[in-house]
Amino acid sequence: MKSNLIKPTSPGQRGSTKRDYSEITTTTPTKSLLSVLTKTGGRNHSGRITVRHIGGGHKRRYRMIDFKRANHAPAEVKSIEYDPNRSANIALLEHNDGTLSYILAPKGLTVGEKLEAGDKVKAVSGNAMMLKNIPTGLQVHNIELLPNQGGTMVRSAGLSATVLAHENNKSIVKLPSGELRRFDSTCYATIGEVSNSQHANIVYAKAGRKRWLGIRPTVRGKAMNPNTHPHGGGEGNTSIGMKYPKTPWGAPALGKRTRDKNNRSSVMIVRRRDK
């Protein structure tokens, strides 16, 4: 898949690129696997904005993805579809028992392929199995952090992790960030790389395309008043005037470690992403 340069018929089109939808086989989602998606505008239950720069955007329906791969009946790929809620493509599976489900489409998946999930399945792209059964050196995605939790890691377009070793009921996996991490060997993962690897190369070129996605503008702190942001004030274009940059609420930004100290999770890290 590749990004296509849009013909510059207007200033807003110049320099922008779009996705190549050649892998998509249908534009009509399965109604039984859709649910209502309510917009929050970045506000919590009290009506206060807790996540900035969110609002508007095109109306969507949520596609219910089977991150657990709970149905172990053999399935056939019926279609490859676009999902407005994520960067990767999704695949519609029809299982032998007649049930339908959506999964994250791995790279190279085509309509008509047979996929399986379970303990005794082949280690081929699209199949889901326990980490202990996956040969070392294979690429995986949609990895469970805890057994039977459902895949929570390595789900974005173009990502993949690598299984490095198995030892003492633990599997060591190299994540896309470079971090080496132990997982319980009974956690499930899906073989292969996530589809739509060219997602990161899309050039939006104008603010309107971001608004369609529900992303609102971001104002620089140094362009604000001093009573609005720690970087604000001054005449003309000035530096932030302090030792380190700050958030609008005065906390350190750009360099301060923000990863929570969770000892239950941190003990599973073999090598951190920052080396």
Structure description:
Helices cover 4% and strands 24% of the residues. It is built from two helices and 17 strands. The longest helix has 6 residues, at 207-212. It has a seven-stranded antiparallel β-sheet with strand order 9-16-10-13-14-15-17, with no helix packed on it. A four-stranded antiparallel β-sheet has the order 7-6-5-8, with no helix packed on it. The chain is globular and about 70 Å long. With 275 residues, it is mainly beta. The protein has helices spanning 207-212, 263-266; strands at 4-5, 17-18, 34-36, 61-63, 75-81, 90-95, 100-104, 114-115, 128-130, 139-141, 143-144, 151-153, 161-167, 170-174, 180-184, 188-191, 269-271. A hairpin with a 5-residue loop joins strand 14 (170-174) and strand 15 (180-184).
Give me the secondary-structure topology.
Layout: E1 4-5, E2 17-18, E3 34-36, E4 61-63, E5 75-81, E6 90-95, E7 100-104, E8 114-115, E9 128-130, E10 139-141, E11 143-144, E12 151-153, E13 161-167, E14 170-174, E15 180-184, E16 188-191, H1 207-212, H2 263-266, E17 269-271
